[in-house]
Predict the structure.
Amino acid sequence: MPQIRLEEVCKRYVIAEREPGFYGALRGLVKRKTCVVQAVDRISFSLEEGELAGYIGPNGAGKSTSIKLMSGILCPDSGEIEVMGRTPWKQREQHVADIGVVFGQKSQLWWDTPAIDSFELLRDIYKVPQRDYKRRLDELAGRLDAESVLNTPVRQMSLGQRMKCELIAALLHGPRILFLDEPTIGLDAVTRIAVREFLTELNRREGVTMILTTHDMDDVEALCRRVMVVGHGKLLFDGGMDSLRKTYAPNRLLKIRLSREMELRGLQGAESVKRNGPDVVISFNPEKISAERMIAQVAGLAPIADLTVESTDVEQMIADMYRELQL
Amino acid sequence: MSTIRMRARPYLSILRKTLTGKMQYRAATWSQLVTNAFWGCARSAIIVAFYRYGSGMAALTMEQAVTMIWVQQIGMNLLPGMGGMDQAVWGKIVKGDVGYELLRPMDVYSHWYASAAAGKIAPFLLAVGPMTLAGLLVPGEIGMGLPASAWHLLACLLTLSTGLVISCAVICIGYAMLMNVNAGTGPANIFMYATQILAGSVLPLQLWPESVQGLMKYQPFSGMLDLPLRFFVGSEPLSALPGVILMQLIWAGALIFIGRKWIGRNLKKLTIQGG
């Protein structure tokens, strides 16, 4: 039985609109226009225990709303959600005791006291026994390399330090499911990698199910075996990273540096050839022509100084995909 | 017993956390006390002027009225919307951080009620000692007087604590109003200020016109501040104590019922802003 199951879930928001400027505000006092935004539009999927899924989509696609629906803090307009056999917004109290959530753009730590104070408050709120709490905190802080900042007031932490503490806060009560809404937003490369490694480890060692929304495609590549793409509230793709590639970015890029500048003519099977001085980028579909034959062809035409074969940049792929689907 | 302690644990923890959080702002705490004391003097001086140059009868003597002003300066910390500490939850609702609040395995109303109580008790405890001292040290007519008797003081403290039950219920109704984000913070603010005035924080209710005295005494918000203070200065007999407490509890029950229903209803159609 899947651990998380969504069936035809819909959520709409009513947004008040007004014309710009003072006059608009004045008119708004009398007459208010509202418009309805379909944030989540009949989304269905299910997740098994221990899965680590990426949930991606452009801004305003309904990612955060989906996370909020699954964590039980929003109530859907229609459809069914079942998490660990419970309906999140109906059995909210039992439900939230078993999940952890990190909203990358918000903070659950008390702003003006050391992080450790917030952790102790959470310990009491989730009724974690002192011994378990101590062991868990030491372990999490150790793995995130955050022991030194536990006594720093949250407002004086760097973003990276804070995010590590947010992760600890979300995991102190040992949740079985972790929802992460843009956990790496604004982090530097080192911290980002540290957070990624921590999450992978957590998923592997403790079997915590995770759903992660992000705009960072490196996150998705590094962490997720399964990807879900949403746009305009609809689920557009659900499957492995490989099949996402195969469908939306089947081409490989052969990047070559030539020993001397020259034209490459009559390449067979190349979808496109871009030349910039001695650098040539050839795009080809490996289903039609193997990389080996492509390289042999080029080697027959010109002297090669250096070469690499790459997949299409995920970021580019997603951008193309958004464009193709007109999101 | 131990289950009660387990159940109370999160709420006590919130109270402790709010108190320590508030105390670490030394400069803010002291400057607030100084401001409070200054206002105590200024408001007392106004009262004195009214008694000197006004004509007619009042239900309070001048000494009683001035003392009431000083005790108000302390007790006001328990009123909704005062001292900025309701903002723990207030800010979260307005900025959309309320999501995290709903992620805690606690009943939402109880959680917010406890936060509201913590936010009121903490500044009150910090103010009560220094402000009493300040009031007693101010010389002459505008200084604070002693309670009518030790029993009157006790009656005042007792009814202030039952008054706090009302006050927190009022704050929670304010939260319920805020949850309709499209309406902005206006309605909740107006509501809070209205209850402050009806609690007698601008003018002791006994100095209001004769014709509204009955109404003023028995409306829900007088129990938050004015009635307890009447015991302090002795303008309400001790024999009225059981009746006052009963009235406070009835109003508190009604307001808690309304707030609980309202917040429960709003949770279902909540919009969580941003992100």
Summary: The radius of gyration of chain A is 24 Å. Chain A has a mean pLDDT of 87.
